[in-house]
Amino acid sequence: MFLSVFDVDADYYGNPWVAETVEAGIRAFKDEINRDKEGVIYKHPESFKLYCLGGFDRATGVVSDDGAVFLVSASSLIV
After folding, report:
1. 73, 28 Cβ separation under 8 angstroms
2. How far is CA 60 from CA 47, 54, 63, in A?
3. Contacts of 60 (CB under 8 A, 6+ apart)
4. How many other CB atoms sit within 10 Å of the CB of residue 76?
5. Up-side HSE of residue 72: CA atoms within 13 Å toward CB?
6. Cβ–Cβ contacts within 10 Å for residue 3, how many?
7. Against a cut of 0.85, is the pTM above it?
8. Residue 6: which residues within 8 A CB-CB, separation 6 or more?
């Protein structure tokens, strides 16, 4: 899966990154948010949302373009 964090205030998508599954991507996003209590995402979680931009089929090598599909808000992942 190709994932990207959208910054609502700056109105742009961050550099895409790859996760094996949507669930693994959400977990990685949660870990990153909570890793640094002084980080911009932790301080302003309402401004950041995780999107899936597409997928990759390992068997065929085909990249799918599913458009930007909302997955989760950073505010719901703060612990």
Report:
1. no
2. 36, 15, 9
3. none
4. 11
5. 16
6. 23
7. yes
8. 12, 13, 14, 48, 49, 50, 51, 68
Torsion of CA 54, 57, 58, 61, to 10 degrees: -90
Q: Which two tokens stand for residue 37?
A: 């209590």
As a whole number of angstroms, the distance between CA 27 and CA 10 comes to 24
Which among 4, 3, 2, 5 is positioned nearest to 44, based on CA atoms? 5
> How do the pLDDT tens digits run along the chain, 79 residues long?
999 999 999 999 999 999 999 999 999 999 999 999 999 999 999 999 999 999 988 899 899 988 899 999 999 999 9
